[in-house]
Structures are given as C-alpha cells and as structure tokens.
Amino acid sequence: MFSAPGKAFLAGGYLVLDPKYRAFVVALSSRMYAHAEIVSEGGDTTEISVRSPQFLEGDWTYKVDLSRPTQSQEVHGRKNPFIKATLDIILLYLSPKVNKSIVITIFSDAGYHSQTNSVPKTSESGKRTFRYHSQPITEVSKTGLGSSAGLVASLTAALLSCYVETLDVKNDATLNQIHNLAQISHCLAQGKIGSGFDVASATFGSIVYRRFDPELVNKVIETWDREYLVNLVDNVDWKIEISKCALPSGVKLLMGDIVGGSETPKLVSKVLSWRKENASRSLEVWETLNKNNMSLVSGLERLQTMSKEQPETYKLLLQSLVAGNKSGFQDVVSSIQGIRKYLKIMTQESGAEIEPDQQTKLLDYCMSLDGVLGGVVPGAGGYDAVCLLVAEDSIPQVIENTQNHSVTWLDLREQELGLRQEDVSEFSGLF
Predict the structure, then answer these.
(1) Of 15, 59, 296, 391, which has the most beta carbons under 10 Å away?
(2) Cβ neighbours of residue 252 under 8 Å, at least 6 residues apart?
(3) pTM, two decimal places
(4) Is the pLDDT confidence value at 268 over 80?
C-alpha cells in the first residue's frame, strides 16, 4: 500500500509555468492511499478494478486487451480520466504478457474534500479514520490540495507493484520512475501539459521545483510511441530541479478553506494573455516576484540552519515571535509582503482574481496577529484557500481570533516526505 501527500503551493504561482523560474511547494499531511491486490492471473483479458469506497458509485472497472493496452474500456461507463490515463500509460510502458485481475482500493484523507453529507468510519485498529460521502466524487467539493496528483502518484506506485518483484519507494531511481510515469499520466488526463509541481510534490514531498520542458511529454500524448515512452521514463534527463526545502522548526503552515471556488484555467489564461500583451511590464513584475519567492526560500533555509546550529538563540526568537516581535524573522516577513504586493499587481493588471479583495482583507488581518509571519493565497490564487506561516504556539490564538472571518482552518501539517509505503494492517475493516 502506498500514499502520496497533498500540497500547498506557497511561492512561485504562475512563474512555475516557465522553466526559467523555481517554486516552493509544501507537502501536507492529507494523503491519498492506494492498495493493490492481484486476484488472479491468466485468462483472456486483463481486468483492473479501482474502488473508492468513500464515495457513492466509487468504482471503475477496466478490461484491457494487452495487444492494445492504450484502449482500455470502462465496464460501467463511468468516466475518471485520471484513473484511465494512469492505467493506459503504465500498461503501455510495462507491456505485460500475462493477463491479471487486479483490485486497487483508494482512500483519501478528510482534508481533500468538503465534509458536508459525510460520516466518519474508523479502521479496526483505530489508527485510520476516513469520511464516507453520500454523493459521487464528482459532486463533492474539493479544497484544492492536489487530489488528482495524489491519486495518480499513489495509483502509479500501486499498479507498478503488481508487475515488479519489489517496489522500494525509498530508492531514488524508483521514485524517479514513478514521478515520470505519473507526470505523463496526469498531463494526459488533463488534456494539457501542466507545470507538474503538484505531481512532483506528491512524489518527493516539500520541495523547491523547476519544471520540465513540455515537449518531452507532448510527444508521448501525440504518438503513443512505446519505445519513446520507455526511453523518456528510464533514460532521459528531464532537467527538472527538485531540492528539499522544509519549514523551520516551530513554524507551521496553517491552511484555511474559504469555500469559495475558482477556475484555475481561467485565471491562468488571463495571466498568460496579460503577459503576452505586456511583455516588458510582465517581465519586470515576474522578475521582482521571483526575487521575493527565492528570498522567502533563503529566509526559511536560514532559520532551519539556525534552529539546528544555534538552538537556544532560535528558541528565544520563536518566543519573541509568539509575543508579537517579528524582527528576528524580518527577511521572511518582507519576502511574503513582496510576494503579495506583486501578485496583487498581477491581479489588478491582468484581471485575474489571484488575490481578490476579500482575501486581501483576511490576509491583512491575519498579518496583524501575534505569531503570524505572513500568508498568501496559494497556487493560482482565487477564492479556494489561504495559507499562513505561523509560530506553532500561536496557532490556537490565531484560530480563535479568526472565528468571525469566514475561514475554516484545516487540520493539516507539513510533510517533508512524499510517496511512502504504508502498513496495510492499519486499514483493516475499511475495504
């Protein structure tokens, strides 16, 4: 059984579309889980059933003729482009010769979806609790944590495990293989080549990320050339930059659900149109925004180093932060303020509501609270969510002080680790 984390895109929104720039993505404790079981081998066709028992009609069964692995057929007529794309890409890549009957069960932590019309169910061990919904998954609101990327990454690992002797997700080569396959599948399902930061975070955890050249993946989608696919996954240097970057000790990410909703493609389209029509101005804004993004990363790395090399000094700084003195964290505070300033400029000049006025008021208020280093509207922005960087000891007070501000703070923590193997015994009674 394998799991992949959700994400909060803290710095680098929009810029990450350009391989010139880097982004900082924080992996979160809400995870997607995938357990695969081989029911039988042999027979005339391969049959793969993917079950998501937390949702009404949450099962998709595909019959596959291995001589035509990219033409899997869903038995019930239900569509899930992310499941289908993942199965098609992996079977094309593996080109298995023996038919199998496989059942894959998917679970998702509560942070991914609205909890309206749901009930909790706990495993026999008491170690796992999930929310079970009375609606199909397509009718349950998402919170923007990257559920599709988590699904594809964990499903990729689970399905691969049915065809290899051992799948060690602690091995770098194996992680890269899973990452590359998941990126291709995710792009295929979306019908476009995205930046890939969400799949990268689902695989590798909290990272600073620079994207791949879209043409690498585009050729797979256009040609379905197996030889090219295998070479791309196993041998080609995608020239992605992935470096670990974690929040410093005692500083936590607080994620807030606004329950507003935004259409990311529309936001991106407006920003790209603005950039095309205002090349010189947009370059100036993006370069300055990038400086603030990288300054934030440098500031967090400095604090992480201090927490390890000067623990007593760092402890005193944290205590001062909780008391309202932010001077020891000024580089992080200034960087976040700079990020918000230029995202607001993009909002006003492009017409894309990256940081809408409603979010501005909320973030400005949160910034005035003791222990808060700053906050942003993560990812592409809009009305989905906000996230804050807060001293851990200040979190209860921040939650109390924002009770009247139309935000629901999610029970999430940062996860440095991305894809990982789980103890399936903890899930007994849930299948």
Answers:
(1) 296
(2) 389, 390, 391, 392, 395, 413, 414
(3) 0.92
(4) yes
